[in-house]
Amino acid sequence: MTGSRTKVEIRGVNKKFITDTGEVDALQQIDLDIRDGELVCLLGPSGCGKSTLLNIVGGFLPPTSGTVSIDGQVVTKPDSRRIFVFQERGVFPWLTVEGNVAFGLHSLSRAEREARIQHYVKLVGLSGFENAYPHELSGGMKQRLEVARAFAVNPDVLYLDEPFGALDSITRLVMRGELLRLWQAEKKTILFVTHDIDESVQLADRVVVMSARPGRIRRIVDIDIPHPRDFSSRRYIELRDGIFEEIGLAHRI
Amino acid sequence: MLRRLISALAPFGAILLLLAAWHLAVVSNPGTLIPSPFRVAAGINELFHRGLLIKYIVASLFRVTWGYALAVLIAVPAGIVLGMSSRLEASFNPMIQIARPISALAWIPIAILWFGVGDLSAIFLIFLASFFPMLVTAINAVHNIDPIYLDAGRNFGLAGRELVVRIVFPAAVPQLIAGLRITLGVSGLVVVAAEMIAVTSGLGFLIVDSRNAGDRYDLVIGGMVMIGVIGLLLDRLIRQLERLDSVKWGYSGQ
Ligand SMILES: Nc1ncnc2c1ncn2[C@@H]1O[C@H](COP(=O)(O)OP(=O)(O)OP(=O)(O)O)[C@@H](O)[C@H]1O
Ligand SMILES: [Mg+2]
Q1: A30 band by pLDDT with thresholds 50, 70 and 90
Q2: Mean pLDDT, range B144-159, rounded to an integer
Q3: Domain check: are A143 and A39 in the same one?
Q4: Contact check, Cβ <8 Å, A95/B246
Q5: Do A122 and A73 belong to one domain?
Q6: What is the share, in percent, of chain B residues with pLDDT greater than 90?
Q7: CB–CB contact A134 B167 (8 Å)
Q8: Residue A176, domain member (yes or no)
Q9: Average pLDDT for residues A150-176, to the nearest whole number?
Q10: In what side-by-side order are the strands of the sheet with A206-211?
Q11: Does B100 touch chain A (CB under 8 A)?
Q12: Which residues of B touch A77 (CB under 8 A)?
Protein backbone atom coordinates (compact mmCIF):
# COMPACT_ATOMS: atom_id res chain seq x y z
CA MET A 1 0.00 0.00 0.00
CA THR A 2 3.01 2.23 0.19
CA GLY A 3 4.41 3.85 -2.92
CA SER A 4 8.10 3.65 -3.44
CA ARG A 5 8.53 7.37 -4.08
CA THR A 6 10.28 9.25 -1.31
CA LYS A 7 8.02 11.85 0.23
CA VAL A 8 9.96 13.21 3.18
CA GLU A 9 13.72 13.43 3.20
CA ILE A 10 15.45 14.21 6.47
CA ARG A 11 19.15 14.85 5.96
CA GLY A 12 21.70 15.36 8.69
CA VAL A 13 19.33 17.17 11.01
CA ASN A 14 20.82 18.44 14.25
CA LYS A 15 19.08 20.48 16.88
CA LYS A 16 20.74 22.16 19.81
CA PHE A 17 18.75 24.09 22.36
CA ILE A 18 20.65 26.73 24.20
CA THR A 19 19.24 27.36 27.63
CA ASP A 20 20.35 29.14 30.78
CA THR A 21 21.68 25.90 32.15
CA GLY A 22 23.64 25.00 29.04
CA GLU A 23 23.23 23.33 25.69
CA VAL A 24 20.94 20.41 24.99
CA ASP A 25 21.70 18.18 22.03
CA ALA A 26 18.10 17.40 21.30
CA LEU A 27 18.79 15.77 17.94
CA GLN A 28 22.02 14.53 16.48
CA GLN A 29 22.57 13.61 12.85
CA ILE A 30 19.10 12.41 11.95
CA ASP A 31 18.77 10.85 8.52
CA LEU A 32 15.47 9.37 7.48
CA ASP A 33 13.47 8.87 4.30
CA ILE A 34 9.74 8.42 4.43
CA ARG A 35 7.94 7.01 1.42
CA ASP A 36 4.76 8.39 -0.01
CA GLY A 37 1.79 6.89 1.81
CA GLU A 38 3.90 5.36 4.51
CA LEU A 39 2.94 5.31 8.20
CA VAL A 40 6.07 5.78 10.27
CA CYS A 41 6.16 5.81 14.05
CA LEU A 42 8.82 7.71 15.97
CA LEU A 43 9.33 5.78 19.17
CA GLY A 44 11.54 6.54 22.12
CA PRO A 45 11.74 7.47 25.78
CA SER A 46 10.62 10.83 27.04
CA GLY A 47 13.02 13.59 26.12
CA CYS A 48 14.66 11.80 23.20
CA GLY A 49 13.63 14.50 20.75
CA LYS A 50 10.55 13.02 19.08
CA SER A 51 8.48 16.17 19.33
CA THR A 52 11.46 18.27 18.35
CA LEU A 53 11.95 16.21 15.21
CA LEU A 54 8.27 16.33 14.36
CA ASN A 55 8.19 20.09 14.82
CA ILE A 56 11.21 20.50 12.56
CA VAL A 57 9.67 18.31 9.88
CA GLY A 58 6.41 20.26 10.27
CA GLY A 59 8.21 23.55 9.73
CA PHE A 60 7.42 24.93 13.18
CA LEU A 61 11.02 24.82 14.36
CA PRO A 62 14.21 25.43 12.36
CA PRO A 63 16.94 22.78 12.62
CA THR A 64 20.35 23.91 13.86
CA SER A 65 21.80 22.22 10.81
CA GLY A 66 20.63 19.80 8.16
CA THR A 67 17.52 19.95 6.02
CA VAL A 68 14.08 18.49 5.67
CA SER A 69 12.65 18.31 2.17
CA ILE A 70 9.21 17.25 1.13
CA ASP A 71 8.60 16.42 -2.51
CA GLY A 72 12.05 17.79 -3.14
CA GLN A 73 11.37 21.18 -1.55
CA VAL A 74 13.11 22.32 1.59
CA VAL A 75 10.71 22.91 4.48
CA THR A 76 11.01 26.34 6.08
CA LYS A 77 7.54 26.95 7.46
CA PRO A 78 4.26 25.16 8.09
CA ASP A 79 2.21 24.36 5.03
CA SER A 80 -1.49 23.64 4.70
CA ARG A 81 -0.74 20.53 2.65
CA ARG A 82 0.71 18.97 5.79
CA ILE A 83 -1.30 19.16 8.92
CA PHE A 84 -0.04 18.80 12.46
CA VAL A 85 -2.44 17.24 14.94
CA PHE A 86 -1.75 18.57 18.44
CA GLN A 87 -3.49 15.99 20.60
CA GLU A 88 -7.01 17.16 21.26
CA ARG A 89 -5.70 20.49 22.50
CA GLY A 90 -5.58 21.95 19.01
CA VAL A 91 -9.33 22.07 18.37
CA PHE A 92 -10.62 25.62 18.38
CA PRO A 93 -12.95 25.92 21.36
CA TRP A 94 -14.77 28.96 19.94
CA LEU A 95 -16.01 26.98 16.94
CA THR A 96 -18.53 24.18 16.72
CA VAL A 97 -17.62 20.73 15.47
CA GLU A 98 -18.74 21.83 12.03
CA GLY A 99 -16.81 25.11 12.29
CA ASN A 100 -13.67 23.24 13.23
CA VAL A 101 -13.92 20.76 10.39
CA ALA A 102 -14.64 23.61 7.99
CA PHE A 103 -11.70 25.66 9.23
CA GLY A 104 -9.37 24.91 6.36
CA LEU A 105 -12.08 24.81 3.71
CA HIS A 106 -12.67 28.51 3.12
CA SER A 107 -11.61 28.49 -0.48
CA LEU A 108 -14.07 25.77 -1.49
CA SER A 109 -17.51 26.36 -2.90
CA ARG A 110 -20.29 26.15 -0.39
CA ALA A 111 -21.62 22.90 -1.77
CA GLU A 112 -18.27 21.19 -1.72
CA ARG A 113 -17.53 22.49 1.74
CA GLU A 114 -20.79 21.11 3.07
CA ALA A 115 -20.09 17.79 1.45
CA ARG A 116 -16.62 17.55 2.95
CA ILE A 117 -17.84 18.53 6.40
CA GLN A 118 -20.50 15.90 6.29
CA HIS A 119 -18.12 13.27 4.99
CA TYR A 120 -15.46 13.77 7.63
CA VAL A 121 -17.79 14.34 10.52
CA LYS A 122 -19.33 11.00 9.69
CA LEU A 123 -15.99 9.32 9.11
CA VAL A 124 -14.86 10.08 12.65
CA GLY A 125 -18.22 9.21 14.15
CA LEU A 126 -19.32 12.68 15.21
CA SER A 127 -22.59 12.77 13.27
CA GLY A 128 -25.23 14.43 15.38
CA PHE A 129 -22.66 16.64 17.10
CA GLU A 130 -22.17 19.09 14.23
CA ASN A 131 -23.38 22.02 16.29
CA ALA A 132 -21.77 21.03 19.57
CA TYR A 133 -18.86 23.01 20.96
CA PRO A 134 -15.63 21.27 21.97
CA HIS A 135 -16.24 21.89 25.67
CA GLU A 136 -19.30 19.69 25.32
CA LEU A 137 -17.26 16.79 23.91
CA SER A 138 -15.17 14.11 25.58
CA GLY A 139 -11.40 13.97 25.14
CA GLY A 140 -11.69 11.18 22.58
CA MET A 141 -14.31 13.07 20.61
CA LYS A 142 -12.11 16.18 20.52
CA GLN A 143 -9.25 14.04 19.34
CA ARG A 144 -11.38 12.64 16.53
CA LEU A 145 -12.55 16.15 15.70
CA GLU A 146 -9.00 17.33 15.30
CA VAL A 147 -8.19 14.39 13.08
CA ALA A 148 -11.29 15.16 11.01
CA ARG A 149 -10.26 18.80 10.67
CA ALA A 150 -6.85 17.68 9.45
CA PHE A 151 -8.21 15.13 6.98
CA ALA A 152 -10.83 17.53 5.64
CA VAL A 153 -8.25 19.72 3.90
CA ASN A 154 -7.00 16.63 2.14
CA PRO A 155 -3.35 17.00 3.17
CA ASP A 156 -0.60 14.80 1.76
CA VAL A 157 1.07 14.40 5.13
CA LEU A 158 -0.17 14.19 8.69
CA TYR A 159 1.95 14.74 11.77
CA LEU A 160 0.61 13.32 14.97
CA ASP A 161 2.39 13.91 18.28
CA GLU A 162 1.23 11.34 20.80
CA PRO A 163 -2.30 11.99 19.66
CA PHE A 164 -3.87 9.33 21.82
CA GLY A 165 -1.67 9.74 24.87
CA ALA A 166 -4.34 11.42 26.95
CA LEU A 167 -7.01 8.82 26.23
CA ASP A 168 -7.98 5.78 28.25
CA SER A 169 -6.76 2.45 26.92
CA ILE A 170 -10.09 1.46 25.37
CA THR A 171 -10.62 4.71 23.51
CA ARG A 172 -7.00 4.61 22.46
CA LEU A 173 -7.46 1.24 20.76
CA VAL A 174 -10.61 2.45 19.04
CA MET A 175 -8.82 5.57 17.83
CA ARG A 176 -5.93 3.56 16.46
CA GLY A 177 -8.39 1.48 14.50
CA GLU A 178 -10.02 4.63 13.15
CA LEU A 179 -6.71 6.16 12.20
CA LEU A 180 -5.75 3.01 10.30
CA ARG A 181 -9.10 2.99 8.57
CA LEU A 182 -8.69 6.63 7.52
CA TRP A 183 -5.12 6.04 6.45
CA GLN A 184 -6.06 3.06 4.34
CA ALA A 185 -9.01 4.88 2.82
CA GLU A 186 -7.12 8.07 2.01
CA LYS A 187 -3.50 7.07 1.51
CA LYS A 188 -1.79 9.79 3.49
CA THR A 189 1.78 9.81 4.59
CA ILE A 190 1.70 9.77 8.37
CA LEU A 191 4.42 10.54 10.87
CA PHE A 192 3.26 9.41 14.28
CA VAL A 193 5.08 10.09 17.53
CA THR A 194 4.55 7.74 20.43
CA HIS A 195 6.35 6.29 23.40
CA ASP A 196 4.10 3.26 23.44
CA ILE A 197 5.82 0.25 21.90
CA ASP A 198 2.60 -1.66 21.31
CA GLU A 199 1.04 1.33 19.63
CA SER A 200 3.94 1.61 17.24
CA VAL A 201 3.87 -2.07 16.31
CA GLN A 202 0.11 -1.98 15.80
CA LEU A 203 0.20 1.03 13.49
CA ALA A 204 3.46 1.47 11.68
CA ASP A 205 4.96 0.28 8.44
CA ARG A 206 8.25 1.15 10.06
CA VAL A 207 9.16 2.02 13.63
CA VAL A 208 11.99 4.47 14.09
CA VAL A 209 13.48 3.71 17.49
CA MET A 210 15.24 6.71 19.03
CA SER A 211 17.55 7.07 21.99
CA ALA A 212 18.00 10.04 24.27
CA ARG A 213 20.80 12.50 24.98
CA PRO A 214 21.78 13.04 22.33
CA GLY A 215 18.60 12.21 20.40
CA ARG A 216 19.59 9.74 17.72
CA ILE A 217 18.01 7.09 15.55
CA ARG A 218 18.97 3.81 17.09
CA ARG A 219 17.33 1.43 14.71
CA ILE A 220 14.55 1.25 12.18
CA VAL A 221 12.27 -1.76 12.44
CA ASP A 222 10.13 -2.90 9.52
CA ILE A 223 6.76 -4.15 10.69
CA ASP A 224 6.03 -6.72 8.03
CA ILE A 225 2.60 -7.76 9.28
CA PRO A 226 -0.40 -7.08 7.05
CA HIS A 227 -3.40 -5.22 8.46
CA PRO A 228 -5.54 -6.09 10.34
CA ARG A 229 -2.84 -7.11 12.75
CA ASP A 230 -3.29 -9.85 15.28
CA PHE A 231 -1.75 -8.71 18.57
CA SER A 232 -1.22 -12.27 19.72
CA SER A 233 0.44 -13.49 16.55
CA ARG A 234 3.94 -14.78 16.86
CA ARG A 235 5.43 -12.21 14.50
CA TYR A 236 3.76 -9.35 16.41
CA ILE A 237 5.20 -10.53 19.69
CA GLU A 238 8.58 -11.13 18.12
CA LEU A 239 8.77 -7.61 16.72
CA ARG A 240 7.47 -6.03 19.88
CA ASP A 241 9.91 -7.90 22.08
CA GLY A 242 12.71 -7.02 19.70
CA ILE A 243 11.94 -3.34 20.23
CA PHE A 244 11.68 -3.81 23.97
CA GLU A 245 15.16 -5.26 23.96
CA GLU A 246 16.44 -2.56 21.66
CA ILE A 247 15.32 0.06 24.11
CA GLY A 248 16.88 -1.93 26.91
CA LEU A 249 13.77 -2.95 28.73
CA ALA A 250 12.90 -6.38 29.93
CA HIS A 251 9.39 -7.28 28.89
CA ARG A 252 8.61 -8.57 32.33
CA ILE A 253 7.93 -6.59 35.41
CA MET B 1 -34.52 23.66 45.79
CA LEU B 2 -34.83 25.44 49.12
CA ARG B 3 -31.11 25.94 49.18
CA ARG B 4 -31.19 27.55 45.75
CA LEU B 5 -33.99 29.83 46.83
CA ILE B 6 -31.98 30.87 49.87
CA SER B 7 -28.86 31.57 47.87
CA ALA B 8 -30.90 33.55 45.34
CA LEU B 9 -32.41 35.66 48.09
CA ALA B 10 -29.24 36.05 50.15
CA PRO B 11 -28.01 39.21 48.35
CA PHE B 12 -31.35 40.91 49.04
CA GLY B 13 -31.06 39.86 52.66
CA ALA B 14 -27.64 41.44 52.87
CA ILE B 15 -28.91 44.67 51.35
CA LEU B 16 -31.86 44.70 53.70
CA LEU B 17 -29.53 44.20 56.63
CA LEU B 18 -27.41 47.14 55.52
CA LEU B 19 -30.48 49.34 55.10
CA ALA B 20 -31.72 48.37 58.54
CA ALA B 21 -28.36 49.17 60.14
CA TRP B 22 -28.23 52.46 58.27
CA HIS B 23 -31.73 53.35 59.40
CA LEU B 24 -31.01 52.46 63.02
CA ALA B 25 -27.80 54.46 63.00
CA VAL B 26 -29.57 57.52 61.66
CA VAL B 27 -32.46 57.20 64.11
CA SER B 28 -30.12 56.89 67.08
CA ASN B 29 -28.17 60.02 66.07
CA PRO B 30 -30.83 62.73 66.00
CA GLY B 31 -28.48 65.57 65.03
CA THR B 32 -26.95 63.93 61.98
CA LEU B 33 -27.11 65.37 58.47
CA ILE B 34 -27.10 61.87 57.00
CA PRO B 35 -30.63 61.04 55.86
CA SER B 36 -32.32 57.73 56.52
CA PRO B 37 -32.90 55.31 53.67
CA PHE B 38 -36.53 56.39 53.57
CA ARG B 39 -35.57 60.01 53.01
CA VAL B 40 -33.16 58.97 50.29
CA ALA B 41 -35.93 57.00 48.60
CA ALA B 42 -38.20 60.02 48.89
CA GLY B 43 -35.43 62.16 47.41
CA ILE B 44 -35.05 59.88 44.42
CA ASN B 45 -38.78 59.89 43.99
CA GLU B 46 -38.80 63.69 44.09
CA LEU B 47 -36.10 63.82 41.39
CA PHE B 48 -38.16 61.49 39.32
CA HIS B 49 -41.21 63.70 39.54
CA ARG B 50 -39.22 66.83 38.75
CA GLY B 51 -38.10 65.03 35.58
CA LEU B 52 -34.47 65.17 36.63
CA LEU B 53 -33.80 61.54 37.45
CA ILE B 54 -34.18 60.20 33.94
CA LYS B 55 -32.52 63.26 32.48
CA TYR B 56 -29.46 62.89 34.69
CA ILE B 57 -29.20 59.15 34.17
CA VAL B 58 -29.37 59.62 30.42
CA ALA B 59 -26.78 62.38 30.56
CA SER B 60 -24.35 60.25 32.56
CA LEU B 61 -24.95 57.20 30.42
CA PHE B 62 -24.33 59.27 27.33
CA ARG B 63 -20.90 60.34 28.55
CA VAL B 64 -19.93 56.94 29.89
CA THR B 65 -21.05 55.25 26.68
CA TRP B 66 -18.97 57.53 24.48
CA GLY B 67 -15.88 57.57 26.66
CA TYR B 68 -16.02 53.86 27.30
CA ALA B 69 -16.91 52.81 23.77
CA LEU B 70 -14.17 54.92 22.23
CA ALA B 71 -11.66 53.54 24.71
CA VAL B 72 -12.68 49.95 23.96
CA LEU B 73 -12.73 50.48 20.21
CA ILE B 74 -9.20 51.86 20.23
CA ALA B 75 -7.67 49.83 23.07
CA VAL B 76 -8.72 46.39 21.85
CA PRO B 77 -7.17 46.59 18.37
CA ALA B 78 -4.14 48.42 19.76
CA GLY B 79 -3.75 45.83 22.50
CA ILE B 80 -3.99 42.98 20.00
CA VAL B 81 -1.34 44.54 17.77
CA LEU B 82 0.98 45.20 20.70
CA GLY B 83 0.32 41.77 22.15
CA MET B 84 1.31 40.12 18.89
CA SER B 85 4.49 42.04 18.28
CA SER B 86 7.04 41.80 21.03
CA ARG B 87 9.08 44.53 19.39
CA LEU B 88 6.22 47.02 19.30
CA GLU B 89 5.28 46.07 22.81
CA ALA B 90 8.80 46.64 24.06
CA SER B 91 8.75 50.08 22.49
CA PHE B 92 5.39 51.13 23.87
CA ASN B 93 5.38 49.36 27.20
CA PRO B 94 7.39 51.95 29.18
CA MET B 95 5.10 54.68 27.94
CA ILE B 96 2.03 52.69 28.92
CA GLN B 97 3.43 51.95 32.35
CA ILE B 98 4.18 55.63 32.92
CA ALA B 99 0.80 56.83 31.75
CA ARG B 100 -1.22 54.15 33.49
CA PRO B 101 -0.80 55.12 37.15
CA ILE B 102 -1.64 58.76 36.45
CA SER B 103 -5.18 59.14 37.64
CA ALA B 104 -7.65 60.38 35.08
CA LEU B 105 -8.44 63.13 37.54
CA ALA B 106 -4.97 64.55 37.13
CA TRP B 107 -5.92 65.22 33.55
CA ILE B 108 -8.78 67.52 34.49
CA PRO B 109 -6.86 70.76 33.88
CA ILE B 110 -5.62 69.53 30.54
CA ALA B 111 -9.06 68.25 29.63
CA ILE B 112 -10.46 71.72 30.25
CA LEU B 113 -7.62 73.29 28.32
CA TRP B 114 -8.22 71.09 25.30
CA PHE B 115 -11.94 70.58 25.33
CA GLY B 116 -13.23 73.44 27.40
CA VAL B 117 -15.91 72.95 30.02
CA GLY B 118 -18.60 70.62 28.76
CA ASP B 119 -19.46 67.14 27.66
CA LEU B 120 -16.31 66.66 25.66
CA SER B 121 -14.07 67.08 28.68
CA ALA B 122 -16.09 64.60 30.68
CA ILE B 123 -16.02 62.08 27.84
CA PHE B 124 -12.29 62.56 27.48
CA LEU B 125 -11.70 61.81 31.15
CA ILE B 126 -13.84 58.68 31.04
CA PHE B 127 -12.03 57.64 27.89
CA LEU B 128 -8.64 58.05 29.56
CA ALA B 129 -9.67 56.15 32.64
CA SER B 130 -11.04 53.26 30.56
CA PHE B 131 -8.33 53.15 27.95
CA PHE B 132 -5.37 51.85 29.91
CA PRO B 133 -7.04 49.00 31.78
CA MET B 134 -8.61 47.83 28.53
CA LEU B 135 -5.32 48.13 26.65
CA VAL B 136 -3.39 46.16 29.25
CA THR B 137 -6.09 43.49 29.38
CA ALA B 138 -6.04 43.13 25.61
CA ILE B 139 -2.25 42.80 25.53
CA ASN B 140 -2.33 40.17 28.25
CA ALA B 141 -5.22 38.37 26.60
CA VAL B 142 -3.10 37.92 23.48
CA HIS B 143 -0.12 36.75 25.52
CA ASN B 144 -2.26 34.17 27.25
CA ILE B 145 -3.48 32.55 24.05
CA ASP B 146 -2.40 28.93 23.92
CA PRO B 147 0.38 28.93 21.30
CA ILE B 148 -1.07 25.73 19.90
CA TYR B 149 -3.98 27.73 18.45
CA LEU B 150 -1.58 30.07 16.69
CA ASP B 151 0.47 27.16 15.35
CA ALA B 152 -2.67 25.41 14.17
CA GLY B 153 -3.85 28.61 12.47
CA ARG B 154 -0.53 29.05 10.71
CA ASN B 155 -0.61 25.42 9.73
CA PHE B 156 -3.83 26.12 7.86
CA GLY B 157 -2.05 28.86 5.98
CA LEU B 158 -3.18 31.86 8.01
CA ALA B 159 -0.98 34.88 8.55
CA GLY B 160 -1.31 38.56 9.34
CA ARG B 161 -4.81 39.96 9.41
CA GLU B 162 -6.45 36.61 8.74
CA LEU B 163 -4.63 35.07 11.68
CA VAL B 164 -5.86 37.89 13.90
CA VAL B 165 -9.45 37.66 12.75
CA ARG B 166 -9.76 33.89 12.76
CA ILE B 167 -7.52 32.89 15.66
CA VAL B 168 -6.17 35.67 17.86
CA PHE B 169 -9.39 37.60 18.35
CA PRO B 170 -11.72 34.67 19.03
CA ALA B 171 -9.12 33.08 21.31
CA ALA B 172 -8.80 36.31 23.29
CA VAL B 173 -12.51 37.10 23.55
CA PRO B 174 -13.18 35.46 26.93
CA GLN B 175 -10.48 37.55 28.54
CA LEU B 176 -11.53 40.62 26.62
CA ILE B 177 -14.98 40.27 28.11
CA ALA B 178 -13.45 40.15 31.57
CA GLY B 179 -11.59 43.32 30.60
CA LEU B 180 -14.82 44.96 29.47
CA ARG B 181 -16.29 44.37 32.89
CA ILE B 182 -13.30 45.71 34.80
CA THR B 183 -13.09 48.72 32.54
CA LEU B 184 -16.73 49.53 32.88
CA GLY B 185 -16.27 49.59 36.63
CA VAL B 186 -13.41 52.03 36.22
CA SER B 187 -15.42 54.32 33.99
CA GLY B 188 -18.15 54.35 36.63
CA LEU B 189 -15.55 55.47 39.15
CA VAL B 190 -14.58 58.57 37.23
CA VAL B 191 -18.00 59.65 36.05
CA VAL B 192 -18.57 61.64 39.24
CA ALA B 193 -15.26 63.44 39.00
CA ALA B 194 -15.74 64.02 35.29
CA GLU B 195 -19.13 65.57 35.91
CA MET B 196 -17.91 67.70 38.77
CA ILE B 197 -16.20 69.87 36.28
CA ALA B 198 -17.81 71.45 33.46
CA VAL B 199 -21.24 70.02 33.18
CA THR B 200 -24.65 70.83 34.59
CA SER B 201 -26.32 67.48 34.34
CA GLY B 202 -25.67 63.88 35.21
CA LEU B 203 -25.50 61.89 38.42
CA GLY B 204 -22.05 63.23 39.29
CA PHE B 205 -23.32 66.76 38.88
CA LEU B 206 -26.35 65.88 41.00
CA ILE B 207 -24.11 64.77 43.86
CA VAL B 208 -21.95 67.89 43.86
CA ASP B 209 -24.80 70.25 43.17
CA SER B 210 -27.06 68.87 45.89
CA ARG B 211 -24.33 69.36 48.44
CA ASN B 212 -23.54 72.91 47.27
CA ALA B 213 -27.13 73.99 46.89
CA GLY B 214 -28.37 73.49 50.42
CA ASP B 215 -26.92 70.32 51.90
CA ARG B 216 -29.46 68.01 50.29
CA TYR B 217 -27.72 64.88 51.51
CA ASP B 218 -30.74 62.79 50.60
CA LEU B 219 -30.06 63.67 46.96
CA VAL B 220 -26.30 63.18 47.38
CA ILE B 221 -26.83 59.65 48.59
CA GLY B 222 -29.61 59.15 46.05
CA GLY B 223 -27.11 59.95 43.31
CA MET B 224 -24.60 57.55 44.80
CA VAL B 225 -27.18 54.79 44.97
CA MET B 226 -28.21 55.37 41.36
CA ILE B 227 -24.60 55.16 40.16
CA GLY B 228 -24.18 51.89 42.02
CA VAL B 229 -27.41 50.43 40.69
CA ILE B 230 -26.66 51.45 37.12
CA GLY B 231 -23.16 49.97 37.43
CA LEU B 232 -24.67 46.71 38.58
CA LEU B 233 -27.15 46.64 35.71
CA LEU B 234 -24.49 47.41 33.11
CA ASP B 235 -22.24 44.72 34.53
CA ARG B 236 -25.13 42.28 34.27
CA LEU B 237 -25.59 43.33 30.67
CA ILE B 238 -21.95 42.67 29.79
CA ARG B 239 -22.03 39.37 31.63
CA GLN B 240 -24.64 38.23 29.16
CA LEU B 241 -21.78 38.06 26.67
CA GLU B 242 -20.19 35.33 28.75
CA ARG B 243 -23.13 33.15 27.90
CA LEU B 244 -22.41 33.11 24.19
CA ASP B 245 -21.60 29.58 23.12
CA SER B 246 -18.42 30.66 21.39
CA VAL B 247 -16.91 32.07 24.58
CA LYS B 248 -18.20 29.67 27.23
CA TRP B 249 -15.04 27.58 26.98
CA GLY B 250 -13.09 30.45 28.51
CA TYR B 251 -14.98 30.21 31.78
CA SER B 252 -15.45 26.47 32.19
CA GLY B 253 -12.25 26.05 34.12
CA GLN B 254 -13.57 27.94 37.11
N1 LIG C 1 12.18 24.88 23.54
C2 LIG C 1 13.14 24.14 24.15
N3 LIG C 1 14.15 24.74 24.81
C4 LIG C 1 15.11 24.01 25.41
N5 LIG C 1 15.16 22.67 25.42
C6 LIG C 1 14.18 22.02 24.80
C7 LIG C 1 13.11 22.71 24.12
N8 LIG C 1 12.28 21.80 23.57
C9 LIG C 1 12.81 20.59 23.90
N10 LIG C 1 13.95 20.71 24.61
C11 LIG C 1 14.79 19.62 25.09
O12 LIG C 1 15.05 18.77 24.00
C13 LIG C 1 14.96 17.42 24.38
C14 LIG C 1 13.94 16.71 23.51
O15 LIG C 1 12.64 17.21 23.79
P16 LIG C 1 11.34 16.68 23.06
O17 LIG C 1 10.20 17.47 23.54
O18 LIG C 1 11.58 16.63 21.61
O19 LIG C 1 11.25 15.20 23.63
P20 LIG C 1 10.16 14.09 23.36
O21 LIG C 1 10.87 12.90 22.82
O22 LIG C 1 9.05 14.62 22.56
O23 LIG C 1 9.68 13.76 24.83
P24 LIG C 1 8.21 13.38 25.36
O25 LIG C 1 8.01 11.94 25.05
O26 LIG C 1 8.32 13.60 26.82
O27 LIG C 1 7.24 14.28 24.69
C28 LIG C 1 14.63 17.40 25.85
O29 LIG C 1 15.81 17.19 26.56
C30 LIG C 1 14.09 18.78 26.12
O31 LIG C 1 14.43 19.19 27.41
MG1 LIG D 1 7.00 15.08 22.94
Answers
A1: very high
A2: 94
A3: no
A4: yes
A5: no
A6: 54
A7: no
A8: no
A9: 87
A10: A82-85, A157-161, A189-194, A39-43, A206-211, A216-222
A11: no
A12: 154
